[in-house]
Each structure stands twice: as structure tokens, then as C-alpha cells.
């Protein structure tokens, strides 16, 4: 695959500003056509996609369940339209085209969805921040404890496989798995599903609490809410992607339920009393997520998960990350890891800010993918410099546009 790039990730947030105008223009252009073409496209396309879905796919994606829903008297409102997650601003750029009728353009997302170039995916590194304050240390120790408990639960060991074993032909995979030195594809998936079902909680809790605080105090939030909600959405997409590959057992569902019940409340209370510690905790948790996904990627590249060799990327992942149609599962996991590096970077940076006064430096423009992949985060001073630079750039661009239009 040569490139995953469709656009640069910088300035992506400012493009959102154009959305309502573009959408309005498009709706005026095609007042009826959009709704009707979206329905017919969606149902037929979904059926053809489902033919290729494995039987073990998540319950909601199984074709018989879908068919039952479609023929049911109690129709799901809006469930049949293309892009039920809402229009994506990229779809609206060429106004002359009816993007909803064009089958080559897929998926549509209301919230910002990350898109990476091939080289950006390679920049992600396993990095960690040394804890400084008591809160930092408490957050790091809690993460280390949770990681250990989780490793025991999922029979995970980070054992490097010696080069001499990797050179053997064939590699004795069954033997290594029996010794517990290698995770099977089932065990990787079990781990991912548990991990991701927890990971979607912090952004939503943080976003909710800051939303309520803004209304309670009748004050601006400073751009934190949307970044946090985008993080929650991004983690949910990771979960939905992995759910297309496995039907979770009753045991997994029970674990997800129990973990969510406990974790949501624990994180809620932590965020209420010390949002700094809560963001530091997420930063540390994401350091571990990058470590785990890097391990999985290395195993895949070394041919240690043969069941996943050349497995095509799930459809939902192609839509969300805008991957090429021939993308593989490996590309998806590399994109997931890049997302985790972003969460690591953003949360550590937010943890360094004054939670009550400071603006979110990434509210208008994200740091570039390389910075997010290689650095654990920005210090408070770096955040201030970054925000200032980006504001100046946007103002300069706006001035240039104004001059050009006169
Ligand atoms: Fe994730
Ligand atoms: Fe994450």
C-alpha cells in the first residue's frame, strides 16, 4: 500500500467551521435527491458488504439480525441512510457531486475522524513520562497495577522471541503458544475488546463534567469538551472495529459490564476531585496501549499471528480511517496505535495545564502526527507557544484570503 493519505491532519479542525455552510448549500442543491438516493444505496450496499462478513461478526452486523430489523414493523428511525453517523465535511467539498449517490465514497462521520499517511503511522514510538508529583505517581502506580492484573487475566506475557527462533522455518508457533510465550489471535482480540471497552469511558466522563461545569459557572470551557468527546468516539470506533472480528462470549460481556460499572464511577469521582490526576492516568494508560499494540504489530510483521496474514481491513475501519479499499488488518492496527499515541500526547499535555483557566491548545489545530507519535506530550509552556503559533497562522491565512477576495 503506497499511501493512506487523503489530507493533512493539520488544520483539520478549522475546516469544521465550513461545514454548516457547505451542508446548507448542498441541501439546497439537492433538496429531495439526497434522502431518496441514500436509502436505496445504503440497503443494497450493506447487503453486499455483509456477504463477506465472517459468521462470527458482532451480533449487530450479522445479516439475519439486520434482515429481521429491516422487515420488522418497528423500523429504526434513520437507520437505513448512508452515513448514519452524520455527514463528513470531506464528502461535501466537491459541491457539484451528489456524494451520497456515489458508491465509491463511503462512510460519513459527524465528529473528526483521524486520517494518517503511511509515514505518519511509522513515526509512533513507545515513550513514557517520568511521574513528578504525588498525583502523577498515584496515577502511574494505578496503571501499572491494572496492567499487571489485566495481563494475568488475558494470559499476556511480553516475552521477546529470540532471532534464532524467528529464523526457523516454519516458526514453531503452536509450541510457543503452548508455552505461553505467544498470544493466539483469539487472545489478542479478547484483550483488545476488554481494553477498548474501558478506553471509551474517560473522554466521555471528562467531556460531561466540563460541559456541566461550563453551564454551572456560566463560563466558556476553552475548547476542551470536543477534544474529549472525540477521544471517546475514537475509542468506541476501535471497539466496533474489533467487534466485527469476534462474537464476544457471555463471559466477555459480563467482564465488560462489570469493568464499565466500576471504572465509570471510579473515573468520574477522580475527575471530579482531581482532573489533573485523571488526565495523567489516561496518559499513562495510553502509554501502555501503545506498548501493547506495538507488540501486536511486531508479532504480525514477524508472521507470529498467521491467522491474520493478509486479512482484509473490516469495512467500518476503511470508512472511519479512510483506508484504501485493499487495506489489511495490519494497517488498521497501525492506525489504532497512532490514535492511542494521540490520546497519550493529548492527555499528558492537558494534565500539565491549569484545569480551571487554561484553554485547550488543540481546540483549533492538532499537533502534527509525528509530534503526537514521538513525544509523550507538551509542557505547559510548549502548549502556550503552540496555541499562540497556531492562532497566528490561522489569522494570517484568514488575512491572505481576505486580501485575495478583494
Ligand atoms: Fe483504543
Ligand atoms: Fe486509547
TrEMBL record:
TM region positions: 188-209, 250-273
Record's cofactor remark: Binds 2 iron ions per subunit.
Residue ranges, annotated region (Disordered): 45-89
Entry's localization field: Membrane
The enzyme's E.C. designation: 1.-.-.-
InterPro entries listed in its UniProt record: AOX (IPR002680), AOX_sf (IPR038659)
Highest rank taxon of the organism: Eukaryota
Cofactor(s) annotated in UniProt: Fe cation
Annotated Basic and acidic residues bias: 64-73
Keywords, ordered alphabetically: Electron transport, Iron, Membrane, Metal-binding, Oxidoreductase, Respiratory chain, Transmembrane, Transmembrane helix, Transport
Broadest EC class assigned to this enzyme: oxidoreductase
Family assignment from sequence similarity: Belongs to the alternative oxidase family.
Function noted in UniProt: Catalyzes cyanide-resistant oxygen consumption. May increase respiration when the cytochrome respiratory pathway is restricted, or in response to low temperatures.
Designated name of the protein: Alternative oxidase
Lineage, broadest ranks: Eukaryota, Fungi, Dikarya, Basidiomycota, Agaricomycotina
